[in-house]
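Hallway conversation turned thread

IA: we were arguing at lunch whether anyone had actually written out DEP domain-containing protein 1B end to end. Turns out nobody had. So, for the record, here is the sequence (529 residues) and right after it the structure tokens. Reply here if something looks off.
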Amino acid sequence: MEPRLVGPGPYRATRLWNEIIELFRAGMPLRKHRCHFKSYERCFKASEAVDCLHELLGSNQNFGPEVTRNQTVKLLKKFLKNHVIEDIKGRWGKEDFQDDGHLYRFPPSSPLKPYPKKPSCGKEVIKFPDWNEPKAGTSQEHIPVKSVTMNSEMWYKRHSIAIGEVPACKLVFRRELTQTNIEEIWKSMTLSQLQKVLGLDSLDEVLDPKLVNSKHIVQNAYNVNKQGIVTLEDKSKELPHWILSAMKCLANWPSYSDLKQPTYSGFERDVFKTIVDYFGQMKEPLLTFHFFDVFVSVLGLLQKHSKAVEALQISCLLLPPENRKKLQLLVRMMVRISFNNDLPPLSESVRTRNLMVQAFSRCILCSKDEMDLDELLAAKLVSFLMDNYQEILSVPSALKSSIEEHVVHLQRVQIKYAGADTDATFPPPSFCHQISTDEFEYQRATGSQEPLAALLEEIAMNKEISVKDKKKQLKQFQKSYPEVYRVRFPTPETEAVLFPEKNKQKPPILMWALKKPFQPFHRTRSFRM
């Protein structure tokens, strides 16, 4: 039986459990063994089971080479407890499996876990507010039309369509978006994007949307400091000062000066143990019990690096702000300790990075129901989280921009004229109401005269356009709105005032230009000698 990648989706942990059992039963060599002068057929030693299962998990792309031998032993203990295996005398039910020479065998059939049935949460993640629904108590009759204020440039750009006879239209008035509305939009679009990244038809089986707090999403997206760490409004939920000091001490070793330098050997191990004990006594993991299935589903995307990072970005945005901040600080400390060559070894037998994963995996991710693969799944997630923590624990910029643009769009009122390629946009508030043709004609006649007259006056008095363009615009206005034009220019003479004829002054005729060309002097009779 070939191992296969178990992708994201409902009951991923259960599917992995069942697959590992089938692979282990198919791949574990069985042979004859002797114990206390007695032979036993088709059985195996405990150490042989550890070797086989450890190799199987390490080569399985759902788990990978990060799985340790100690984790494999813990999994075999759970196999014994759940009657996946039994000792040669048929005993099972306890977690007393050891990595030694005791003999074990498979029962006739190893029980596979059934898939639990969860109540459906509905296909819709969240219902968008009905922006077209008027406020309670708002009359639907005789809602006045807001006049359109246009300058000459805007009017001229689209006069050929919009300035003509405007047909009856639907006036859109929308509600002003409250903070609650914006938070609901953030929640809906965030969950929708998560569902898209996971490639699921529905989030029903991995997440109950009712447990997602929209306020948490908005706070995680906007209440951050320069380092991208969440800032909490409730300071009582901050990490204790002494824990922060201990974390900084190890993360910045040996340069951190808030504590006195150690005076005894093993000081750094005592500080580390203090941190482990604090996070280990938490009643709920940082990723919370509610989101366990979501994060386990994300593990199915680790082969697609960019999608896995995006899915974890969005999933971590759902966390309570205090959990998100603790996670950011803890993972950052874990990474710094792992790369700090100046820090003395915190364990004699385990490498520092593996120690970080083993020490903090359970306080980051675990199931409320004590799932059998909790430790392996948590170790896989924490390893990936440490490798990509800067991206994963930052606010997804693409999602944030998309939601902000959508909110801005909802806060605008747009009226599209038939055939026009541009909109007249008004500021909120806004509602939707359709009026009759008679009501529209009445409103157009009474409500549009003043702005049109102002527009005509602006065209007439505009000195920045050429005379040719001004005449052209006035002619177009007169054709579309003859009544308004006639009020402003009742006679041709009033229109002509805008274009006074310039008297062309002819250049003065010089007296010498009228004289005949020079001719030689001729004596006349009056000049007789």
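OS: looked through it. Strands lie at 31-35, 38-45, 86-87, 103-105, 170-174, 413-416, 423-426, 430-434.
IA: good, adding that to the notes. The radius of gyration is 41 Å.
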